[in-house]
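Workshop exercise sheet. Pairs work together: one partner reads the sequence aloud, the other fills in the structure field after running the prediction. Swap roles for the next sheet.
Pair: D.N. / O.F.
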Amino acid sequence: IQLCGPDSATKQWIAAVACETVGRSLLIIAADALPVELEQVNLFQCLCEREAMLSDTAFLIDCDHETPGPRGENNAHLNLVIDRLVERLQCPVLVMSGDRRPQRQRPLITIDVHPPNPDEQHQIWIDMLGESAPYQSKVTELDKDVEQLVANFNLSPLAIQTIIQTVTSRQNKPGKVDCAVPDSLFQRLWQACLVHARPRLNDLAQPIQSTVGWDDLVLPDKEKAVLKTIHAHVKQRSTVYEEWGFARKSRRGLGISALFAGASGTGKTLAAEVLANGLNLDLYRIDLSAVVSKYIGETEKNLRRIFDVAETGGAVLLFDEADALFGKRSDVNDSRDRYANMEVAYLLQRIESYRGLAILTTNLQKSIDQAFLRRIRFIVQFPFPDAAQREEIWRRVFPPDTPTKKLSYTKLARLNVSGGNIRNIALNAAFLAAEAGEAVQMVHLLQAAESEYIKLGRPLTDTEVKGWITASRRVT
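Structure field:
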């Protein structure tokens, strides 16, 4: 039997279930581990047949993870070894690979395996939870929770089975909190899904850990309302797409994408953190300026790797510095121009089909082609904060445990800087105060503001700091 398709986990799960159904154990053999010499191949064949007779074993040859050899010589020889074993083994043998293998003399049943769609995943969750003793009586109550899991995580049957077994094993350990209560169980399943689906992006993405909430975000009401709408789109995706049938009309354009535009420090990354925390999802920052490569084809390869790994869900992708890729569409004067346009088209295509939330940020929205902007679902402007907004940011910037003394937020708001600069000044002032063994005061904030303005290459004017401190308290 030949199992074909891109989803290795589902193919392996199907093979395991099929063998269990007929009372056979399954032994998985990595194609790379197969012997290469003819004498060794013959001996390996005999060992497999003996094992099959003694323990009712079937064999699954895994060709999905074979390592390409130089100029394909190793792969060609390996394929000959696999074909020989498939032809001669006198026992049940399955082969899983991405592409179909050519038919040989021995009859070969080929099954194309596709990842389970949302409806199938929902049923798999319900069936497997129903088979798990602690949750059998709770399955009907978990239907809505399962919908949320399916909407946010694109998991194989094997992954779902592993997650349920993990949660069940923890439930059975002495001293653990009872998770048979639906809400508690849902949280445990959600956390287990997050861990299992967590993308391994290594050098291409940076995980952002944060605990900020909506109260930490200072924006005009209009922009904040758009962010709330984005949150609702992600949270209610299962209801609208699946339950209400929008996905059945067309699977195109179901990805949720947003462009955050504004000057540096105006809260774009903070807003992404707020959304991720509100949705209980991981946030990954991808610096597009680092992903874009001067070598033809490398940029698309990097983007494909990011999305392929993140497709299991549970992640909000934050593409920083979108200007690096989304510039004005260039005229095709050479092959590099043609590939640059293809890279942009590929990114947009993957964003539109991505099951999670994809956010792009830019400091220069005017530099982005309007044709690209039309394919983004939401555009949120992050304006430079006015005096009232700056005062609100100052009031929220210090954690509750930070000791402060006689701070004038109205005077601090006269500093004509962004929210990011305000946080830098507050943090620097906190260190100065801690070093002096004092609570944070205006004198520390003045010194920190002077340092920040030097970084900005701007003079700190008397108008901005008038009345902050008395001359005798100035720190030098």
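Discussion prompt: The chain has a mean pLDDT of 84. What would you look at next?
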